[in-house]
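Provenance and format

Records in this collection were gathered into a single text stream. Each protein contributes a sequence line and a token line. The two records reproduced below are adjacent in the stream.
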Amino acid sequence: MRGHLHDFLLFGRRDRRKTLLLLLLLLLVGLGFHYLPRLLSGNEAEEQQLMEVARQEHEAFEARLQAQAEADRVQEELFPFDPNRADSLTLHRLGLPPWMVRNLLRYRSKGGRFRRPDDFRKLYGLTDELYVCLWLYMRIAVPSEQASSAAELPSDTVPMLYRPDTTARYPARPEKYPAGTLVQLNEADTAELQRIPGIGPFLARRIVSYRQQLGGYYGIDQLREIDIDSRPLHDWLQVDTTRIRRLYINRETLNGFMRHPYLHYHQARALLEYRRRHGPIRHLQELSLLEEFTPADLERLSHYLSLDAE
């Protein structure tokens, strides 16, 4: 060891510098081989986690659209039912969401009973629109304690089922607007949308739900994205684009970007990476430099991205 050190000291200054530099490079290479796999695996784990978040967001969005489509289908398949006897599958087919079905079954398991349609209306979370659809189909059986006394009555007077009186003042379907009426698409609630011919409670909820995801509509034809024929609605709807809720492109987070229906995971990552490398985005046309965005993407996103905080 002393001999090697003695030989090293006998080197010229330039040779010693070269030797030290070579040793430093070897040290850096060794450290790189040791830590680089860990760094790469850490980045890969983070990317996998973000991909999983994106996948879950996408699946949740698809599930909402599928649930809305199922609700539209269910509307055409209403049938008589007894809320005191219907099982979970029957209640689901009638359009009740799973959590509401569980609450209803729990209420019945504790001895609760629906004696009139008005009792069913008090079910937590039940909308007026769905109640209007269901109340005419309710067939509430006479309780057993009343059945024995009813047996002593003439058969033609025994009330075997409670059938709603259609002359009673139960909630009526919304009266439709006359021709020439214009409804503001970015402000109307479900009740107002139902007054447009051709729009029922399920389509109205679908329109409002997608509006909330987008932040507002910039055109009526966007309704085609949720499988609604927009052509007959041009005579009834108008769009105020000042009502659109925009994303602040220089401050939004990854999850914030991905919550928008027009942005997917790779586009959101590309936006963040561009901001990291080049600083704040000063013009939306800068996004055309990114291969993740097509001209069609930029056109429709231009209605939702903002350079300035609002």
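Adjacent record:
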Amino acid sequence: MTVNRQILLTETPQGKLSESHFKLSEGEVPQPKDGELLLRTRLISLDAANRAWMQGATYRSAVNAGTVMAGGSVSEVVESRAPGFAKGDLVFADTGWQDYAAVPAKTAQKLPKMEPLSHLLSVYGIAGLTAYFGLLEVGKPKAGDTVVVSAAAGSVGTIVGQIAKIKGCHVIGIAGGAAKCKLLTGELGFDAAIDYKAEPVGKALRKAAPNGIDVYFDNVGGDILEAVLFGMNNHGRIACCGAVSQYDGAAPAHGPRGIPGLIVVKRLTMQGFIVMDYQDKHDEALAELQGWVASGKLKVKEDIMQGLENTPKALVGLLAGDNIGKRMIRVS
């Protein structure tokens, strides 16, 4: 009989996440019920949001100690007990960190077959669509605008900056480390990059954006959000995608200071969003992303690690900023 390997969250972390908070377990392959699909996991998506789920309910229920760690994946249908799906189909589903999962068919999204398969998790998956909708629908950049992106070398940030360039904007990326900054201004075409580990972000922004900031795509929150807020132009737009600086470890001593006054005086728009908000525009976004990739205007950066057993290590590393582009685990 085939064994189903699973990664369990053994305890809810109170401080920084470590590999010791997980364990590898083996169980039986589940049997799908009527209306369900039996899936074999191919690629697991790793995201900063995985850490936030351990803190409590967000747009999904919390992940509790003693259960299979939650996570989305590209998976293959092994057995279908639901209409509309057949053996061999590819789907995106919340399978968790395991080899096999039985999920309700209504929660699975059928995917096209393509090579590389990994693009279904990166540029054509949640990362690419989050970048697309967050920038274009919330940030609403116009040609000539100055756009700033934090976590700019990550899965979403690399795509946000490139789309902003396609739209004719002046783009500044904030990332950690000289190598990441070099990638941004070299291969990915950003106009400037700020290494937050090497220089004060506020001071560097005043130099890189002397005429102020029109759009800020925020992936980190915290002190970087505070620094950018002081550089925003009147009627600036802030797309709040995530707050990775506050997901892992102790709660910050303070939030960004001066926000209420700045928002009022500068008439700023600050809006959170999740990609599911724009499901009705999914096909339109996908077509445009595919066109940009095919033309070479949009370069795809992926960070693929091998083996289900390495999933905890991969997430801990992602939270520490080890990745460039979309991090994922190849399971099978």
